[in-house]
Amino acid sequence: MKVDKSLEEVRAWKDKIYEADKGLTTSQLLEKLRLETADIKASLKLKQYRPELASAKAK
Fold this sequence. Notes:
- The structure is a single chain.
- The protein has three helices and no strands.
- The protein has helices at residues 7-21, 26-44, 51-58.
- The model has no long low-confidence stretch (mean pLDDT 82).
């Protein structure tokens, strides 16, 4: 999949996101990020990260 974005397109995209989120409180932003992350994990079928299992595998 080829991604072809000019710097101006990326800046416009960033500005749109900023405008949409600038009125949100910190807790609202964190909740939005948590939900978006959960959606991404679900769509990619990623398993939940469990640090206790990762440290056990490293030993």
